[in-house]
User: Fold this.
Amino acid sequence: MIKVRTFTQNLEIMKTIGELNKLDDMVNNFLKTEKVKKVISVSDAVTTNNDGMTMGIIRVLTYES
Assistant:
């Protein structure tokens, strides 16, 4: 069965690398704990504030269990 899971992370100026690593860790832990057999796709999209500045990221994982 194909499933989709969404992960989110707020981004702060000058802390982006650490926050992206944290997001990667969340996804990797999910893959391990849920014993995901096959990853079909991973995509990222950014969220912005009213001024157009990036303030967060959404990662969508499509997988087969």
Remarks:
- The mean pLDDT is 94.
- The first strand starts at residue 2 and ends at 10.
- The chain has one helix and three strands.
- Strands lie at 2-10, 38-48, 54-64.
